[in-house]
Amino acid sequence: MEKKIIKGFPHLKFEHQEYAEEELIQRSDEFYQMMNRRRTIREFDDRDVPREVLEKIILTAGTAPSGAHKQPWTFCLISDPKIKQKIREAAEEEERISYESRMTETWKSDLKPLGTDWEKPFLEIAPYLIVVFKQSYGMEGDEKIQHYYVNESVGIACGFLIAAIHQAGLVTVTHTPSPMNFLSDILNRPKHEKPYLLLPVGYPKKETFVPDIHRKKLEEILISY
Ligand code: IYR
Fold it and tell me: Using a 6 Å cutoff on CB, does residue 178 contact ligand 1?
């Protein structure tokens, strides 16, 4: 591996994998087709998944770019049934209040086609829960480390995470109970970490149905200049 000091800092020669145009086109199409098969799944099978798959998925999320390469994320991986039960109880408590009084009528009406409600059995049925925390700042011993573009960085990492879950052959639902401070207490996270997203991971229930919804066409999402 070729190394060089540039402006006082170590650099490695970047080995770019280049493809012929035809292969480039084919690869972009195959990846799109694969990603376009992803669906949000709310009914899970309780079958176990090898833990190393979850570890690889989390490593993949950790390859995301981040502000000043601070990697401001923590991924909590939960399989302990007692902790899953605590999370379900606390999430349902908040969700029940949200559906009953915090969410607007328009919001609830927008969710009707998706069939969501305050009940979240998937939080106990899925073999794994990943709770993503964003680190507003870092801590090295007693020293506070500044982090940058934390929401953007963690959002991108979650995109990688969801893509990796799908690519491996598993399913998830991006669950955002609100408010979700209860996750900091249950998982005993320090105060510089804030819960960002909760993802159950596993296989879908043997027979499950997904809403008949469609993705916007290219003309609707692309503006060329
Ligand atoms: N957090 C709630 C409500 C909810 C909100 C949106 I926006 C969704 O796309 C789906 C659900 C829940 O998880 O049910």
Answer: yes
pLDDT tens for 23-49 read 999 999 999 999 999 999 999 999 999
How far apart are alpha carbons 65 and 71 in whole angstroms? 8
CA pair distance 124, 137, nearest whole angstrom: 31
Give 201-216 as a DSSP string.
EEPBPSS-------PP
Distances (CA, A) of 136 to 132, 195, 210: 13, 10, 35
**pLDDT reported for residue 1:** 86
Give the residue whose CA is nearest to atom 13 of ligand 1. 175
Number of the ligand 1 atom closest to the C-alpha atom of 178: 1
Report the C-alpha gap between 79 and 179 in whole angstroms: 23
Count CB-CB contacts under 10 A for residue 29: 10
pTM over 0.85: yes
Distance CA 208, CA 220 (A): 30
